[in-house]
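re: ur question from earlier - yeah i can do the single chain one, its not a big deal. heres the input i used so u can compare w yours
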Amino acid sequence: MVYHKTEKVLTKHQNLRKKILQAAKQIFAEEEKEQTSIKAIAKRAGIATGTVYLYFTNKEVLMETIVKELYTELLDIIQKERAKYGNTFDKLQASMEICVKKFMEEKHLAKILLEHFPEIGAAFHTKFTDIENDLIQFAKQDIDELMLQGLIPRQDTQVSATAFVGTFRQVIFSWISHGEPEEFEQAYQTLIKYNMRGLGKGLMTHRLTHKITDGEQNAKNKSQKGCACKCGVETDSFFCQDILDPWDQQGKRKPG
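and the output i got, formated as tokens:
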């Protein structure tokens, strides 16, 4: 007679598996490599050591499972968060925000993986690369859409998306390895603004408001703050960044 697990039994197994994974994450984040044994994980979970082996054949499989589930969870959160927004800039920012916050929540685990487990660290890097490639595709879709809408200058969107995500990757790894900044929110906002400026956010729509006459240009006093087109933007330059932008309204490079 074939034994079929009831829903109650399946739920019990799923809960126990989650309990083991949670205990493992805590142990790996807190202890040195020598102390991160299956026995220690079982003790933290409040179960027998043999029970852990019923779910995971060894410590490496357990860690790979944690990395894979982190990857799956992160993508799911990103997709759900993006669905909340209609504005493409907001979707793009939401993708990066979730990624930064999730990795910073798990920074202790990530640091342990990278520093103490070279073999698992390689798997972590592989999964992070998968995450990065997915984020690049999300970013490229958004940048393509923004360019079609005329909200940013024409550009190679694959290069822009790769650079956009790569900046976040470098900063995240720096924060994981050396510690996050004291003013985290300020640092994060600086990162967002830096990348958005790099894409050209605001340049195209801002330019449409500018109609500068020779008289206005000649009347501009360079010692004063403010653009010659009287747009209200404070700048030490003769023109605001919009006027200095080397692209025309059709996204073509200006002559000269």
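The mean pLDDT is 75. not sure if urs matches, ping me
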